[in-house]
Structure formats: structure tokens, C-alpha cells
Amino acid sequence: MQASVSPIALTLDRLHTPIGDLLIVGDNDGRLRAAEFHDFEDRLHRSLQLKRATPCAYSLREGRASKVIRERLQAYFAGELAAIDDIAIATGGTEFQQKVWRALRKIAPGRTMTYGALARRLGATNAMRAVGAANGANPLSFVVPCHRAIGKSGDLTGYHWGLTRKRAILGWEAGQVSS
Length: 179
Hints:
- The chain folds into two domains: 8-84, Double Stranded RNA Binding Domain (2-Layer Sandwich); 95-176, Arc Repressor Mutant, subunit A (Orthogonal Bundle), CATH 1.10.10.
- The radius of gyration is 16 Å and the shape is globular.
- The strands form two sheets. The protein has a four-stranded mixed beta sheet. Strands 5-6 form a two-stranded parallel ribbon.
- A hairpin with a 6-residue loop joins strand 1 (8-15) and strand 2.
- Helix 4 crosses helix 5 (128-136).
- It is 33% helix and 16% strand.
- It has helices at residues 41-48, 67-77, 95-104, 115-121, 128-136, 163-176; strands at residues 8-15, 22-27, 32-37, 58-62, 113-114, 149-150.
- It is of the alpha/beta class.
- It starts with 7 loop residues before the first strand and ends with a helix.
- The longest helix is centred in the C-terminal third of the chain and has 14 residues, at 163-176.
């Protein structure tokens, strides 16, 4: 007989940002588990189940995310773009996806990188499509800055929150970075 696993207690918080209201899910250990814009709330639950060997049992209640998560996200949206760099995260995902997400976190704010360049950085020269797929599965907007990945011609491509929002985020970040 298999022992029952208690659901992970998660808190759903809402944060107003200059780019739209953000839903943020944190756990009791102060780690960010998911972040989605309010108009993509349905994706939030899929993000919490991302590539787990067994479905993750969780309970989600409205409340406040950890003070650290809220303060760092608020600082990011106040123009301190590096404030999110060390937010503790807990995601599912394959080993390759997690490798891509770690690399995305190293792209400087206000900068972009092509999927091909990101694949080369990971030592997977021919894995541009796999990098793009991992980028698209990212459950943590802003904190894992998938908006900084672009097509090989420099075009904005493949953003599940829409290219209008991607353009707005990149423009907003670029305006916050001093030359």
C-alpha cells in the first residue's frame, strides 16, 4: 500500500505591474513556483504540473507570497532589474529545460540572445528548436526571462503571452538600463 502524500501548500498572490497584473505562486519555503499574467491564469495550473514524474498534489490558497519574493518583484518593476536574479525558485521540468532556464537567467536585462546563441552557450549547437521549446515551457515569467530569447534574424518570436507583451517588456527593460 502506497503512503498518501500531503499536498504542497502554495499561496497565490497578485501583483500589479506596469505590464499587467501578475499572478505569483509561492511555497512555504519562500520559493517562487509559478508566475503568470492574470489573463493567462489557466496556464498557471499547467505550469505547476510541468514535467513531473508524478502529478504534484498541491493546495492553492489566496494570500501573500513571501516578503522576499514580493519585495524583489516590486524592486524589479521599480527599475532595479537585477533584484530578481537570486529569487529562489522551484520548478518541474526536464534536466534540459532547467539547464535552459538557468542560462536564460544569465542574459543581462535589456539584452537579447538568439535561440541559436543560447544553444551554443549550452554546448548544444544544433538544439535551437529544443531551446525554443524549453523557453516556451518556462513557468516563471520575468524571473526566468524567456522574453530575452529571440529569433536568429533578431525578430521577436514565440512568446506565449503574445508578441505585443514581449515587445513591451523588452522596451520597458531597455528603458530601465543605463548605458
